[in-house]
Write a structure and sequence with these properties.
- With 503 residues, this protein is an alpha+beta fold.
- It has 18 helices and 14 strands.
- Strands 2-1-10-11-7-6 form a 6-stranded mixed β-sheet, with no helix packed on it. Strands 5-8-9-12 form a 4-stranded mixed β-sheet.
- Strand 6 and strand 7 form a beta hairpin.
- Helix 10 runs antiparallel to helix 15.
- The longest helix has 33 residues.
């Protein structure tokens, strides 16, 4: 099958019969028509349509090595520096289209399953069937352009139960039975972003290592369609809206986060990637260089989003005739400095790329992890710049309906700018309001703060990948020792001179 179109994406999502709850009620009917999902589904359909456009198809796709059909370039396992550059250029096209607001644009999970595929060989020693399953599933996703989400994080109560309770009592996600058809598992996963607007879900939790079993029932990885019997999706409140004038961001980019419940779900044997040995969780993540490949995609999204924030700040400044004031120059220059930093870090990761043990080309981890440390710290600062510049203008913002009512003439007369009509000026301030003060913007800020793990997790990731700790410590010790030796020699020479000069 060739790459899918936006129309095919929507049809696949609507065709699923998933058990999904919103505000306590079962959603019935096409998901693409529901107010909580129609905006993001349409946006992602536009992304898929890009792949088939004549001007983009060479930049965004490549021939499948199995079928010869065009497939998404974000599935490409990089074998050389040129492959890394191709992947980055493709990811840039999508990131600029969604302006960096989609944390789970399709290339994110395409990159995830690609990275795990590159390390499938390590599963041969565990169970050759699992290695074959992972390879086959990657090829299935690539050649059918499957839209994926993931379920990695368990609720607090589940994590604590996995550490404290016996295997038979724990509410941590676990396998409760193995039979001829597959494994039956139960558990809950939170923050499955876009879990409802994908076709399949990769489930790969961190196992609970304290259970006293030869086979750890909490150690597993698999992928399943969203509409298996026993799966339930519970949505948070939506920030989406129908009016793209009133809510220019959430009307397009609202990614629903869901709690996914597995209640005795049967996972077929051919969809299991590992089971029972917790060591393979760490090995698959580590040896596949999962976090490094993903960080390459994330850095590209960071750049697109920073450019959007910069453009918004400068547009607000121009609208208020303060673009050349010293404080604005300072803020704009600070964003430019970070933008150039993110670009340089991504470039450094590509220039420092090397082959892994499986023969694949992997970007240098250090620069990419550095970007994943810096952006969560800087993003709230950019939001604050917009809040402060927008001032009360972010509050007094009439709606689209007001302009179309009897109040319209008043608004057009009194809310215009020095060079803009009221409609355009308010549109700009509504954009700034949604990012700086609305629910969508608040979720974005929190999402970016913890996107790649909490600050401590990312710090450990940076610390552990750095290979020069001992070398640099030794350099300091050598410097101190050399200074001490030099001082001792100087002291001896001084004593000798004093002795020679004495009568």
């Amino acid at each position: 099958m060739p790459i899918k179109s936006g129309k095919q994406y929507i049809e696949r999502i609507d065709r699923q019969n998933i058990n999904i709850r919103y505000k306590g009620e079962l959603i019935q009917g096409p998901l693409s028509k529901h107010p909580a999902f129609q905006g993001i589904i349409q946006t992602q359909a536009e992304l898929y349509d890009m792949q088939g456009e004549e001007s983009y198809i060479e930049q965004m796709t490549y021939p499948s090595p199995d079928t010869g059909e065009r497939v998404g370039l974000s599935f490409l396992p990089p074998r050389n520096a040129e492959d890394l550059q191709k992947r980055r250029l493709m990811m840039e096209l999508w990131a600029k289209r969604h302006n960096g607001f989609l944390g789970r644009s399709p290339d994110y999970m395409n990159t995830a399953i690609m990275s795990l595929y590159t390390a499938a060989d390590i599963l041969e020693e565990h169970n050759p069937k699992y290695a074959d399953n992972l390879r086959a599933y990657y090829r299935y996703c690539r050649d059918h352009d499957i839209t994926l989400s993931h379920a990695f994080i368990q609720p607090y109560a589940c994590k604590m139960s996995g550490q404290q309770d016996a295997a038979e009592d724990t509410i941590a996600a676990k396998v409760v039975e193995i039979n001829d058809q597959g494994m039956i598992m139960t558990g809950a996963f939170m923050m499955a972003t876009q879990g409802a607007t994908c076709e399949e879900m990769l489930v790969f939790p961190s196992p609970s290592p304290t259970l006293f079993h030869d086979v750890n029932p909490t150690a597993f990885a698999f992928a399943v369609p969203n509409d298996l019997l026993g799966m339930t999706f519970i949505c948070r409140e939506s920030y989406g809206a129908a009016s793209s004038y009133d809510y220019p961001l959430s009307a397009r980019y609202e990614e629903m986060d869901v709690l996914v419940i597995f209640d005795h779900v049967l996972v077929p044997h051919d969809r299991i990637f590992y089971y029972g040995d917790e060591a393979y969780a760490g090995r698959l993540f580590g040896e596949s260089r999962f976090h490094t490949h993903i960080a390459h995609q994330i850095a590209t999204r960071y750049i697109a989003k920073t450019e959007f924030m910069l453009g918004l700040l400068e547009s607000l400044a121009d609208e208020q005739n303060v673009g050349l004031e010293p404080h604005m120059i300072a803020n704009v220059s600070r964003i430019i400095a970070y933008l150039e930093t993110f670009k340089a870090l991504r470039l450094a990761s590509e220039l420092g790329a090397s082959r892994d043990t499986f023969g694949y080309f992997v970007p240098s981890a250090g620069p990419l992890i550095a970007s994943s440390m810096l952006f969560p710290q800087f993003y709230p600062e950019m939001v604050e710049m917009i809040q402060l510049l927008g001032s009360s203008g972010l509050i007094m913002i009439p709606s689209e309906m007001d302009f179309h009512s009897d109040s319209g003439p008043y608004l057009n007369r009194y809310l215009k700018g020095s060079t803009t009509e009221a409609w355009d000026r308010i549109a700009l301030f509504r954009l700034a309001w949604e990012l700086g003060a609305g629910s969508f913007g608040g979720r974005q800020t929190q999402f970016e703060r913890f996107f790649f793990g909490n600050a401590q997790t990312v710090a450990y990731r940076m610390y552990n990948q750095f290979e020069q700790h001992e070398q640099l410590r030794n350099r300091i010790q050598d410097f101190i020792a050399k200074n001490n030796t030099s001082s001792q020699l100087d002291g001896l020479e001084d004593q000798a001179r004093k002795k020679d000069a004495s009568p």
